[in-house]
Please model this.
Amino acid sequence: LWVTRDEFIFDDKNMNEEKQLQSRSTARILVALVVDDDISAQVRSTLENTGYTVFEAEDGASTLAIFQEKLPELVLLDVMLPDTSGMEVCAAIRALPAGRHTPVVMVAGLEDTGIISRTFDAGATNVIAKPINLPFLGQRAKYWLHSGALLAGEIRDMQRRLFSAQKFARLCHWDKNLDTGAFHLTCAEPRMFGLTLNCCYDDLFAAIDANKRDKARRQIDEACAADQPFMVEYPVRLSNGESRIILNQGEVILDDVRQQRLAVGVIQDITELKQAEDRIRYLAFYDNLTGLANRTLFREHWIKARSQAQRANRMVAVFFIDLDHFKRINDSLGHPAGDRALVAVAERMKLIFRHSDVIARASDHFTPLSLISRTGGDEFTILAAEITSLDDIGHLAERIIDAMNEPVRIDDQLVTLTASVGISVYPNDGDDIDTLLKNADIAMYEAKRRGRNKYQFYQHAMNEENRLRFLLSNRLRQAIDNRELILHYQPQFSVADGRLTGCEALVRWQDPERGLVLPSEFLPFAEESGLIRLINDLVLQHACQQAAKLVEAGVFAGCRMAINISGDKVNFPLLRRNILRTLTATGLPPEYLEIELTERVMMENISEAKEILQDLKDHGVSIALDDFGTGYSALSHLRLFPLTTLKIDKSFIKHMDDSINGRELLSAIIGIAKCFNLKVIAEGIETAQQMNVLTNMQCDEAQGFHLSRPITITALEELLNT
Ligand code: C2E
Ligand code: MG
Ligand code: MG
Model:
């Protein structure tokens, strides 16, 4: 039987009520027939005899009152009522929540045929004619109730399906009749949206955060008034205190039947979607470790900052910040500690930024144009927008440097980090961000050269050389990875008998673009950037491997492979470890290896150098003092360090005839070296005459273009085989 309820709520309580109704033997029928009291009375008794409960009304007003009180399953309604028309009453019933689906059967006189169509417009279910055929009435009533129940069942099933779809899609539907104001909400779990089932249109907006409420409502109202679709997003606070993001999306449609305008909307919980979007945005624009902006966001901000600077005739400063010796933290404390240090640095920068009066601040309506970003390992860049004076920029840079100098606590250690800062300024130092970043980087590099822990403005005078230097060190990094560094070997010969006594491994950069690049062009950068350690190590391994092969081939007896060790600060303990390991790994007996160091390298840490070199020497490795005659050239060093070999620098050879006592000096050096039991090698022999002089001075060995240029391993093998 028909359930006279507006909504179907599928919880147990209501299902039980429904069953109770079904189990009743009689249905309630409301009869409002007034044309003829007789007929009314006859209808009543006919229906009651058939087993129905009947309520009677006399006019439109009482019909509605009784309807609401008794909630009948069927309404029989005269088209002509004393106070109003049946159509009006029918429409009023339909507008009631409980009356939307109740079968309403109109009773019309034959003379009323003209208005039959209007009865249907008013929402009537059926029309019967007067005089009423009483014997059939009971049967008809049964039929109407039955078909009404079927329809109700169908509607209920549809609604059930709709509800579960809504529930799983987390959405609800609302419509508002723009002509009558009637409002309906269909929702499986209205609480999920901060709504209640019997809410009105105003309630739709009740749970929205106060500061967004009026705006959201206005947007929807205005769209409806203009017949426009709408899509409005707003945050709501639910009764459990939870905050969710809601999308209210809809349009205005025309109800063909009633010729009325209907605003229909779907409300959807898009919180998770929003969170996913935010996450994607975060990943695309922010650095995961520090939460700072990444390159992409940095560039986006630059575009805005520049156009604003152009309009306001202001400057934009680009800071390039590189932490000094950051690698040491990673090496000594491990990468996780390194990461924590970076996070600490980022926090510090944020703090400076927040408290700076120089940087253009975000207003309510504009995103801030200034921002800090992390662009790589220990590299940070800052975009400072709307700057009016260079002094301001300088102050900011000082702030950054000062802030960095405060020690950071990482795990249980206090670590002091310093930073080198390079600055370029738009429009002075460049018009596009690539140029500005590059120039700031060059300036940063200059700050490092000046001793680190400093800031430096870019100057055009930081000339080509600097720029190239900078580009080169970057390229070199890649070159090492790409295995573009190769070795050539320069043979060394016995002066007395011309026998080949060994060779010096000399590194070259086989650059795919520039061809063979000599060490003088890239080693200085390698030393400044610390890459030299890697190079020393590569050369050591490679040269030992080759030498081991030569030894194995039986062509290297009595010879040595000499390698150069250089760097800003050579880590001697590490050097010893690497050498001993490499010898073991390659199987090269230590007496085949010679290492060449300059006085400068040894003087950096005299005691360590002495100790470690002595140890290596004890292992059988030869130790050569390279480039003697340049730099210190202190004869006392020959005794101070545990050497085996002295290499006289090529400049000494070249200029031995420039001064009157040049040759004597050379001869004296050779003599003293021999006193110390050192083998003497003269480098840079370019002429037969120089060779003669050295032969006369009883120099032990010679190396130079006159004898052989540095050659490939294949050429060396050939030479050794002849
Ligand atoms: P060095 O150790 O004094 O090496 C000798 C340099 O003199 C080599 O230059 C060699 O090619 C060059 N040379 C040899 N004979 C003559 C000659 O008759 N006339 C002239 N004018 N030059 C001659 P190269 O290969 O350009 O190396 C320059 C410097 O680069 C080396 O000086 C050394 O200090 C450094 N170096 C080269 N290879 C390596 C390496 O593998 N590791 C390290 N750490 N430094 C290296
Ligand atoms: Mg050398
Ligand atoms: Mg040398």
Observations:
- Confidence is low (pLDDT under 50) at residues 1-25, 360-367.
- Residues 626-627, 647, 649, 683 surround magnesium ion (ligand 3) (CB under 6 Å).
- Residues 134-169 form the longest helix (36 residues).
- The CA atoms of residues 508 and 518 lie 5 Å apart.
